[in-house]
Amino acid sequence: MKYVDEFRDVDITKKLINKIYKKFEGRDINKRVNIMEVCGTHTMSIYKNGIDKLLPKNINLLSGPGCPVCVTDTSYVDSAIDLSKNKNIIICTFSDMLRVLGSKSSLSNEKLNGSNIVSIYSPLDCIYIANKNKEKEVIFLGVGFETTIPIIGLTIKKAYESNINNFSLLSSLKTMPNAMKKLILDPKAYIDGFICPGHVGSVIGTDDFDKLARENNMPMVMAGFEHVDIVYAIYSLCEMIENKEYKCKNQYKRAVRDNGNKLAKNVINEVFEITNSNWRGLGNIKDTGLKIKEKYKQFDAIYKFKLNIEESNHINGCLCGEVLRGVKKPTQCKLFKSKCTPLNPIGPCMVSQEGTCANFYRYVLED
Ligand code: SF4
């Protein structure tokens, strides 16, 4: 299949790996090069394909805050649980949020206890559910990055045009570029280059990342998700680090335009406006969240139910915050594989299949 098979070609990946060894093994391009990816699909592809183990020892891969479930603050989960206890409310969510622990419980526990919580595939399903349950309030848990935001915006537009008044969004929607800036400025999260999130790029393009790279002297590559894409991105980043080339190179042109997808961006801009957002492990970051604009305010669950969602503390012993900043590896967490497993996840990084801890559990053999 064109645009897929050539990026899964093992021989091309082998050649690229050999080039990386020839050019960069043991080289003092920066003693140790730390390359971070900020997309859960990249995380899965790296560990599933064993790319981390194929590289020279001086090239270190870090997984950043690229999984939307993993960066969702505990207080948001607590608010969703509180709402779910109201018999007149139906909570709709993507299934990966179900097992994320709040401070005391999870949505999946509350569902077992009788709360009306429905797992859905598309936010548009909420419109159908709201129409079928006119006596109840339907709340969608909006957890996601730029990739899922356009379809959530479309759902709100559809609800507005159809005069649906028993639907609302509890937004934990997040945008990536300013979160990356926070990591660049974090003295403990030492990062030499970024593999930029291809899905996010397909919506917003490379322009914002390029600006971020140039303003902060940080090499970046926009990459696809096959092993050829990722290894080529690592090779390019090593070259850019060595040459002090600070920009965002677009190596995912088959899906990403420099200025992104105009239609998707228009929907986002029509329905949402920028606000601050609470990120697990990174705290409250300016201009990294989205809230519903005045015109569509009736669909904002925070406004409708008069909620106040404060930034909250971590779960005891869980190092998700440090893992998400690339400061610690999951294997440095005392709970990893002992108390925290995919069947019994303590933190969100073990819940989602895009989570770093879940991927380490599945694919990484300890040294
Ligand atoms: Fe949190 Fe579990 Fe990962 Fe430890 S192993 S950081 S407890 S998710």
TrEMBL record:
One of its GO terms (biological process) is protein maturation. Keywords: Iron, Metal-binding. GO terms for molecular function: 4 iron, 4 sulfur cluster binding; carbon monoxide binding; iron ion binding. It holds the Pfam family HypD. InterPro entries: Hyd_form_HypD (IPR002780), HypD_1 (IPR042243), HypD_2_sf (IPR042244). Gene3D superfamilies: 6.10.20.100, HypD, alpha/beta domain 1 (3.40.50.11750). Belongs to the HypD family. PANTHER family: HYDROGENASE MATURATION FACTOR HYPD, HYDROGENASE PROTEIN ASSEMBLY PROTEIN HYPD. This is Hydrogenase formation protein HypD. It comes from Romboutsia maritimum.
